[in-house]
């Protein structure tokens, strides 16, 4: 429907209740049509959301990517119809047909909000706690961008609607704690405090005093009646003025309006049904057919969607006067090429690595890369989950970000791997930043749900995960990742790199930084590795996923495929085999996903037709993709153990000798097969 | 060294400082010898631990598995030498040679404490937050066992030493919140409040008021000088009397005693070095050679280790008078066979499933299994992370556990997947319980670090993970596990089951319940599946990991291997192929790990020599192990989408037709290969 907004369509002429009910019933009707969805939150939080959108949220529905808009995050993503209704009503790129196609194949209105799929959706939510933790990253990005570019270009709020589920997830605590510590005063969380979760009353499982808990982390907190629009408005207005992040606990009734379901878990996650839908219409005085929004109400909502136009135009005016670099950062939907200074710095590093061929842990090589390039990329933001001196993630040029001092480029995320990963997603989503953050690879398990969302959203975030195998030694099996490489490689859209020397580390960074639409994990060694790459110039070989390091003259009898710290062991094995006149090709395979994407003929050239031996200090995982069902694999078959790294490699049999032995077996089997 | 304890060796005759310094310097010397480890915590918390062990902890070092002992959990597992020193000094099965072999191959003293590896270690710690969350499960188990068996058999405390890292992890919040809600008054957390983490002062990353935060979740809290033994003793004594779980924040100096390192992050995770070790000896007046503990001090410690003897003997006396069932539950190091009543109930269910052949979601079949067996297994404890009615995890016979009412068999864990998994570990570690708990399979990512620890510890815990594929439909990609099967299968020691019908679901439960030394994940469908198994009696076929469902007469042209909800689709494909005179065998592969363990000839019989097609509504992961490097796989290549399940199966091409097409391609390739 095309609604032209006339001057007389005054927002204030339409009662709050009509605005809110328009949201409620679009949600109810869509869920009823889909026979699937969660009416409880849209009905319960329609009043709060209406107050927020109609009186506070700075946005221009025609320009959902305007960089200085307020961010709105529906952390309780199951209430997606609340967001879709708001986007549609305010004139976003979401038609009534889209609403009617809720939860259907190919629609713009999937079950949970998906970033990149529906214009106006700021982040993908659904897995609980992710929204609020991502919003912390957005609010942090706002302050950091403000510190860099000033109030004229960056000056906005981040609002979150979160439910009990989000607040019960431990992730929320990491987020709350970080936001409080950094004093992110422009973050305002509207808590849908309805006392109900899926199993029943929240009293079944929790007795937390959320207000006290948030206050303990330095938040400004208050409680309000979520069905009293003036009270909600006053609360938001006042909390916008505080220097602390704010929690407004909105007492609401889940499924507000459905007489037999409201206030109980029955309203949470199932369509109301014909009878309760009709009863809700009667109870709330919404006497319209399904999906019908009366013209005055729709006009009022469309005007709300245009409230931000003037501000946006004023912002554009300031934007026109900004520096070219700033303008580049604020281009909507931009494809940011890495600057020329970066390309030069990277080339210089490469020349040095290739000529000096240092013996370095890849985490050390990574440190040198960061020292060399950090200042060349505007918006590169480092950090670590309290392992800065182990991950080696802080570049010399980077100073820490602190409360009230946001100009720095390094974040002490604390011992909050999950919160870090979610905040990195928020930094990337906000725009203007390329975040990377470090922890041990074994603790990728902690941040995994947020890494998955980065992959689903196709964000450029870079996880620096050091201590990537039993090579970390004495810390033992709790800290030794044996299954994590395999577990990360199966996440779609995620690039998992395991570079084998300093040059490969640089190339892996180059791939990660250049992957605008995919997150990366750099898996780096604790232990020192020789640099075998000596090509000072030329193409990025890591970018092909796998490549031939050694290709024996006159063909090969066996192909050894290895990654990371095991490539140099495989090279040693190849030398051993050469003394027995077994010609071994050696392949370094730093990124399976990129190799998978290469043309068939390239892959065939690399893999060859000789028998293959896989080598990785990890469980076999998906290696059979490369070595075949019965291919030899030299790696781990169990958890690791606590001992010095060289002892572990020996005891677990990941040595040149055992690789050579596996190669001999493979060759013998092949020869036997030929004779038979 | 063999120390006989004489009557005159009065504990009280040895000064607290000597007892504590004995702990400190065993730690310092072991770390110095290993040139690896974390001296900061043992030095800082030696006073607190000495007070706890010498005055409160109920234990008998000669019987570390005495069921009614107090549990002591070192959540800050990097301080392992504190625990090893205490175990050695109190006369546990840990010699001075073991201490000297700290962090060496094959030693009993690995870098982080490992359950099952070192007698007296109650749980594996190191990944931060896990200890405190596991301890919540132990404390819960204590109350539940007490409710079942009375004060005479079960009456003990659970003590935890946790550091800043543990408390910053979101997992700790889930644990704290659950413990507060359930009123676990016998849980006492001693917080090593030293203000230092790895990166530096904790003020770099956190401003939390931990006392206020714990209080907000219903804990009794206080602060104490951690180097004042009397103050610590008074705090513990008083907190033992509160009805709430207790937090005692012990202000300590990290690395206490090392003049140039104490109170800074330098003391945290590196050996002190010769100079600082000597300086610490001087500063603390510990004028002994490395590893030397003066005889009076050692005698005093040994007496501390025997303090609990009398109590244990009195307990044994009561134990002798307990019922046979109770005695069975409290056998140390027991191998609990499933009771006859269970075997009967399972057989009955199987007969019914096999004869009625119901069309049921496997989560529904699981519900029926639980209804049938729950009351036959003492100590079976169910629960869900707020998805009871979706996971179908609550058996009819199970009533909820509540604060002050612990006799029930079902736990509302709240929206705390990670906390649930860790608490389940604690329930299993405590003894007397077989815990299972539910969530959606996609959210296994949230609980993954605790699942990993269960696998490392070889605990019998059972994760019921429903909604196991795109078959969950409209909730969309955030909730659809596409990579989780593969990601779980790579964890060593973990059994991942994906049953295909009601009979397989029963068999999977049977395997999981019978796997005393391995955790299990049951991946169950949301959508209904036909029951194809009609063998009312006979062996558990799931126990073999994979087996032939259809084996065509006269050999096969192709083998279709599928799991879970895709087995019935593969069966349909086989029928399609039969009309074209292509003979397709169909293999159901509910558990890769168990199949891997079968004898070669069994595996060969099942897999056959015909070309193979893998079918699973998930990414390919490690399927090439079964189908070969170039084997056909019908599954997912991306994240899912939001739509009704049948639409998703069609759109993603997981249909009988696409399987048949893949089979035809495989057969054609094989024939071509033969002709060529």
Automatic annotation (TrEMBL), chains A, B:
Keywords: Calcium, Magnesium, Metal-binding, Thiamine pyrophosphate, Transferase. Thiamine diphosphate binds at residues 78, 126-128, 165, 194, 268, 443. It catalyses: D-sedoheptulose 7-phosphate + D-glyceraldehyde 3-phosphate = aldehydo-D-ribose 5-phosphate + D-xylulose 5-phosphate. InterPro entries: THDP-binding, Transketo_C/PFOR_II, Transketolase-like_C_2, Transketolase-like_Pyr-bd, Transketolase_bac-like, Transketolase_BS, Transketolase_CS, Transketolase_fam. Its EC number is 2.2.1.1. Substrate binds at residues 38, 268, 363, 390, 467, 475, 479, 526. SUPFAM superfamilies: Thiamin diphosphate-binding fold (THDP-binding) (SSF52518), TK C-terminal domain-like (SSF52922). The record marks 38, 268 as: Important for catalytic activity. GO terms for cellular component: cytosol. Its cofactor is Mg(2+); Ca(2+); Mn(2+); Co(2+). GO terms for molecular function: metal ion binding; transketolase activity. Binds 1 Mg(2+) ion per subunit. Can also utilize other divalent metal cations, such as Ca(2+), Mn(2+) and Co(2+). GO terms for biological process: pentose-phosphate shunt. It comes from the Bacteria. It is an enzyme of class 2 (transferase). Residues 360-531 form the Transketolase-like pyrimidine-binding domain. The keyword Magnesium applies. Belongs to the transketolase family. Catalyzes the transfer of a two-carbon ketol group from a ketose donor to an aldose acceptor, via a covalent intermediate with the cofactor thiamine pyrophosphate. This is Transketolase. It comes from Bradyrhizobium zhengyangense.
